[in-house]
Amino acid sequence: AERNADAVASWRTIQAFTGLTLSAYSTMHLFNHWLAIHSQDVYDNALLALRELYQHPAAEMAGAATLALHIYAGKQLPSTAKSSAIAARFQRYTGYALSTTLAIHVVHARVLPAMEDAPADFAFIHSQLHRYPALGYAFFGTLMMAGTYHTYNGIWTSWQRLGAINLRSRTRFGLTTLACLVSLGALAGLSGHLYYIGRPLFRTPRQFAL
After folding, report:
1. pTM score, whole prediction
2. 208 falls in which pLDDT band (50, 70, 90)?
């Protein structure tokens, strides 16, 4: 029993460290969209500079390994008490939504550009939001807010597990809400409200005409 408890504690620590690492990356990635409020050039230059960092092959492999370890560590943890079962379940389901968003993002920002030998295409979400505004904003907005809740709620949980911080529930709720608003800022950018986005590069005009 003692050995099992030590193993659980180890997996919780691993999940906390990997979660904080992934959270730092996603926060940096989302914050970049707000730079477009200043100007298109500031956003473009920041994006190119950040890509030199996180699109380096070593960085991408390290990120993929961190994500895989984070998910695996979560699978090794036992079920939580009934009193926190709903929160734990919601955290898990929002993690699935975040994984879905990440998979879509990787395909359109890394896989398709590599196949076509072209710059990353930011216009797919933009075109879908213009073709199907009600469904598009509901779908992508829900995915982004769910993923943001999982990320920022996970930050506080990780800090608590590591004994670094203990926040009140109201403070956690307020900060999570703020994080969701930041995520919506990214959605505003991808929908073309913060900077210009052209026609999709990797879709035929007949399929995805603006």
Report:
1. 0.74
2. very low
> 197, 174 in Cβ contact below 8 A?
no
What's the confidence (pLDDT) of residue 206? Answer: 43
157-166: per-residue pLDDT in tens?
A: 888 788 766 6
Residues 121 and 186: beta-carbon distance below 8 Å? no
Distance CA 46, CA 186 (A): 15
- Enumerate residues 6+ apart whose C-beta is below 8 A from 42: 35, 36
Q: Enumerate residues 6+ apart whose C-beta is below 8 A from 130.
A: 136, 192, 210
Distances from the Cα of 77 to the Cα of 12, 71, 72, angstroms: 7, 10, 9
